[in-house]
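retry 2 of 3: previous attempt timed out while embedding zinc ion. Reduced batch size to 1 and resubmitted. Inputs unchanged:
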Amino acid sequence: MKWSYRIITIFGIPLKMHITFPMLIIAYAALFGYQYGIWAALRGTVLISALFVFVVFHELAHSKQAQKYGVKVRDVTLLPIGGVSNMESMPSEPREELKVALAGPLTSLVLGFIVLGLNYLAGYRILDFSLEKIATSWDYIPVYLGWINIFLAFFNLLPAFPMDGGRVVRAYLAQRMNYARATRVAASIGKLFAVLFGIAGLLVNPFLIFIAFFVYLGASSEEQGAIVGEILRDMKVKNVMNTQCDTVPAETTLAQIVESIFHGSCGGAVPVTEYGTFIGVATRDDILSAIHEHGLEINLGRIVRRDTPFVNGDESLNEVYVKMQQNQRNAFAVVERGELVGIVTLEDLGRAYALKSAILSGKNTM
Ligand SMILES: [Zn+2]
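retry 2 succeeded.
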């Protein structure tokens, strides 16, 4: 996520903080301080910081569970609206997604009961708290933190896809219908909840308006991803790959290639060879950013991606699309029996998607 900075690495997972996150703490402290004075400001800061320590536990539970299923976790990022586990993908096996989704709320629930239990044993009255009391005494903060964990567990279990409960719904539906359709149903429920959060935000707590946006955008993008996946699934790499690419020797300078890259027909990519052997692909974006950084006189051999991933011609475009997102690469080499037979790029997938969806919508209107 842009504008996020790493604070620490826990269990091999980088914990990042979005630049807007400290604003939440400052706002909270200022609100408390304004109403109840300087000590209250300090209490507000401690409360919100401690709350986010628990949010981190919640997110790490999701992440650790996902790692068990071989999902790569990029990081856990703290945003003003909560924590987000950035995973390369969700496990597509519904039962696995279900367990990943439940791990967070269950952890919050258990932590909540532990904290309240300790408070009870320490002699605190665990039913007696309010924001005003927290602002005026340290004693109530631990009790409040216990309850807020329990609240977090139940709030996240609302079926507001892509929140945890919504993922549970999708995983449940995906066992009964295909994945794309399950996603669309879950996303519709998610959007409905986003509207409800928005209304509740206007009436009760403005904070919910942010949650509403987050849920709505999240549901839309997951829905879009599912539709794209459904359309791309039926097409294969060999149907869209570029086979007429001219290979270019590594010693070619960017000045020599810059014109042909814009007129070339290789999906915006250049296959590069060294001593006659294919060594990787340079994309239009690679070339443009290299020109920006080093000028036109640098040669292709210096900027080519020598670890360009390979796919084979029979793979579905959906699989390739997922791999492109996972690898954050826009161009793959297509190899058959050890031989380079073509290049497939994100542009090719985009063109195939546009064509196929045009044909499908044409069919629907006839
Ligand atoms: Zn969660």
